[in-house]
Amino acid sequence: MSEKFASAELTAGQLNALVKKLGGHEKALQFLRGELAVTPAETPKLLEFLTSVSVPAVKRFVASDHFKHGETVHGVKCYFWDNFRKHFENKVEDGVEACDIRIHKLLRSSRDLGIRAELTKEREETKLAHLFHLLTLQPNGEKGVLLTNGWANICYIRDTEGTLWAVSAYWFAAYLVWFLHADSVERPLEWSDGYFVCSR
Fold first, then answer.
1. In sequence order, which residues have a C-beta less than 8 Å from that of residue 6 and are 6 or more positions away?
2. Taking the CB of the first residue and of the last residue of the chain, which one, N or C, has fewer CB atoms within 10 A?
């Protein structure tokens, strides 16, 4: 039975780099003696917390009274794509509690799965009433907590069936309007770095 060194496939340069990674010759010997532990590098964070904004309690929020395609309601004019219309136009939220909405910046491109994992289940979900209130703070694309450069502001909101969706709001300065879209949180596409994510 032939014996083969585990390092047989490594070049001298790779072995040298390994010793350097461990901190030099003495550290490598400490590792071999079991006196030095190597732990995996921490995964870089996806989100950078920027600020938070307080949103009021709402006894009853009827989406169709606030989100009217192409119309201005409470100073906010919205257009929405079919997915938003289908899943949220008839949404009603009762007993929405006041809370602080946290605004995060996406540091690198990611699917919803990674973003939601970092937010945690306890904080990922917001309400449609919360999103509308944020829009009323910047109805004409004013400077504020939401992006107004045409990039996405993402909220995770449940629809009329209780399914969680990634609802995104984009300010289109050329039309002076907020565009709203709803995407499945299972979609394979990634959100781009620089986008904002809202959470509780």
1. none
2. N
Distance separating alpha carbons of residues 198 and 200, to the nearest angstrom = 7
pTM, two decimals, is 0.80
CA 132-136-138 angle, to 5 degrees, is: 120
Instruction: Find the length of the chain.
Output: 200
Angstrom distances, CA of residue 35 to CA of 13, 26, 28, 42: 25, 11, 10, 22
User: What separation in angstroms does the CA of 111 have from each of 56, 142, 154, 188?
Assistant: 30, 29, 12, 7
**pLDDT tens digits, residue range 30-65?**
777 776 777 666 678 999 999 999 999 999 999 999
- β-sheet with 47-55: strand ranges across: 47-55, 99-106, 196-199, 153-158, 164-172, 177-184, 76-80, 72-73
Asked whether the beta carbons of 54 and 61 are under 8 A apart, the reply is no
**192 conformational bin, left if phi > 0, alpha if psi -120 to 50, beta if neither:** beta
